[in-house]
Specification:
By secondary structure, this protein is an all-alpha fold. The protein has 22 helices and two strands. Its main location: membrane.
């Protein structure tokens, strides 16, 4: 056995960074791995020394993955923390009528910039682009914390969202470069765990910071986390520098940005700020349709498209994109209406909103980690989306059965089923998408999957909100028609304009009024979860057609030109 042969085998086992003899030029390199690359190029250096040098890479990969997790934590934690601080922010800055824009501005720029960040990373190298997105996000955090008016806060939140669009995409794309798909499952399971942790801890941290340090620290808390991420990524991560000779697809970027912006505004404003049949909503809908239909025609003509359409020729990629959209629809909708049911019907405190979702988030985190490790050890993954596709609609159907008398234990068990189902799919969709493309399209694959999940979430919250409101109004109307003793008319007046009552306010109402309101909310959540269960069946159908394509090893990935 020659030293050179042993060296090559050692490099393949650790995902060597040599673009010609190992994985590819696009396969990431981290500090500590350089000796392995040197050993590969030096004849007669010895198999033992090569193996020893190569062994340094996994430890360095762990440092890089840790820094990526911090970046993902920044993106996920921010919205959860800020949501808890919003009442205090409005109390100080005023501008209650513009409250929704604090969230909309962030969501809008995040969604619109996501595919652009992915393409920039493909063209100019991921490390620099990723660091830039962190800096922009931190700049938005500092300025948001220093805002003196609601208008300033909205503008700075838009800047923050612009950076957030690159955080998640950059983290996933770098992991795609650095870790071969065969080993990526365990890391993505850990990433899903971080996301679940942010959802659980965000509201608790936000409430604590707001109560003891002030609402501005809901934004300033990002600075130490961001500094750690910048330091680790800047010093430990080493990716090949590259610069594409192609031109940026400006027209495609403009069309996609306008289309996504119009679509997000429709879902955010429809039925709330404006009626669904209003000229504003119809005009925005038409603009979204025209620009998004024109986008693929433009992409076919340009030499360096923002979103290469050829990635959709891969059946697995197209299927997991659809699954990601539906998963975002279900997940964001559930996170919105589950706490509403628990607070309004079951009398839970709003301050425990993070803990209320533990029965969903904890199983999701555990299943994601276990599934990721199982995928890494076996290389098999097709069965997991199918299991998730079965559990999600079952969990949603069970949640649709909740009534005024449903106990927290019963609803918690239903939530466990839903959380476990989402855990089977959360990160595997990204893994399958990345395994379906070449390294040169890794950023596009990551950004497209993230984008469709984000858009699915926006559509889900908007559509479920419309269904919920309509059902609540119908129940109130029926209760009012039953007579004054039902309390329906009084409850309807309390909720005019979409207002919702917390547990403390409900406890002060007359028994008849409180009962009418609780039944209306229960009917509304029944309608939205039943709708979600029906749509979630499509997840199972799509998952059934996923093919078991072998996960690529480090040496099997195609090089980036």
């Amino acid at each position: 056995m020659s030293a050179s042969g042993a060296t090559k085998r050692a490099e393949r086992g650790t995902g060597g960074a040599d673009g010609k003899n190992g994985s590819s030029q696009g396969q990431g390199e981290v500090k500590g791995a350089e000796p392995a690359a040197d050993a590969a190029g030096a004849a007669g250096s010895g198999a033992a020394q090569s193996a020893k040098s190569a062994g340094a890479k996994p430890r360095s990969v762990s440092f890089v993955v840790f820094s990526l997790m911090i970046a993902v934590l920044l993106a996920m934690l921010d919205n959860m923390i800020v949501g808890t601080a919003m009442p205090t922010i409005v109390g100080e800055l005023g501008g209650l009528e513009h409250l929704s824009w604090v969230v909309t501005a962030y969501t809008l720029t995040t969604a619109a910039s996501t595919p652009i960040w992915g393409k920039l990373g493909d063209m100019f190298g991921r490390k620099g682009v990723f660091l830039t997105s962190i800096v922009i996000f931190l700049a938005g955090s500092v300025t948001s914390g220093a805002a003196q008016t609601m208008g300033q806060l909205i503008g700075f939140r838009a800047l923050q969202g612009l950076g957030a669009g690159g955080l998640m995409v950059g983290a996933m794309a770098i992991m795609g470069d650095l870790v071969p798909p065969r080993e990526r499952g365990k890391y993505m399971g850990m990433m899903a765990g971080v996301m679940s942790l942010a959802m659980i801890g965000g509201p608790l941290v936000g409430g604590t910071l707001t109560d003891h340090l002030g609402w501005r620290w809901a934004f300033y808390i990002n600075l130490p986390l961001g500094a750690i991420a910048l330091a680790l990524v800047g010093t430990v991560l080493h990716l090949p520098k590259k610069r594409s000779e192609g031109r940026i697809d400006y027209l495609g970027a403009v069309l996609l940005t306008i289309g996504i912006t119009a679509a997000v505004l429709v879902t955010s404003w429809g039925g709330t700020e404006y009626d669904w049949g209003s000229g504003t909503i119809l005009g925005l809908s038409a603009l979204a349709v025209v620009t998004l239909v024109a986008f693929p025609f433009v992409e076919r003509k340009v030499g360096e498209p923002l979103l290469p359409l050829h990635v959709f020729r891969n059946g697995n990629f197209s299927l997991v994109t659809v699954i990601g959209f539906l998963l975002g629809f279900v997940m964001f909708g559930s996170m919105t209406f589950l706490p509403l049911f628990q607070q309004s019907v079951q009398g839970a405190s709003a301050t425990n909103s993070g803990l209320l979702l533990l029965p969903v988030l904890l199983p999701m985190m555990v299943v994601s980690v276990v599934t990721g490790r199982a995928t890494t050890s076996t290389g098999k993954y097709r069965i997991y989306p199918i299991i998730g596709g079965v559990l999600i609609p079952i969990g949603l159907f069970l949640l649709a059965q909740m009534e005024v008398g449903t106990s927290r234990l019963t609803s918690g068990l239903y939530m466990v089923v839903l959380g476990a189902g989402m855990g089977f799919l959360m990160q595997l969709t990204m893994l399958i998408a990345q395994n379906s493309v070449e390294l040169k399209d890794m950023g596009v694959a990551s950004s497209t999957t993230t984008l469709f999940r984000t858009i699915g979430g926006s559509f889900g919250v908007a559509l479920m909100g419309t269904v919920f409101t309509r059902q609540v109004e119908d129940t109130m109307r029926d209760a009012a028609a039953a007579g004054p003793e039902s309390g329906g008319a009084a409850a309807a007046k309390l909720t005019e304009g979409g207002a919702q009552l917390d547990a403390a306010s409900l406890a002060k109402l007359p028994a008849a009024v409180r009962s009418a309101y609780e039944h209306a909310v229960a009917d509304g959540t029944h309608a939205v979860f039943l709708l979600s269960a029906g749509l979630a069946v499509l997840v199972f159908i799509a998952a059934w057609f996923i093919k078991e394509v072998p996960l690529k090893d480090a040496g099997a990935q195609k090089p980036v030109e």
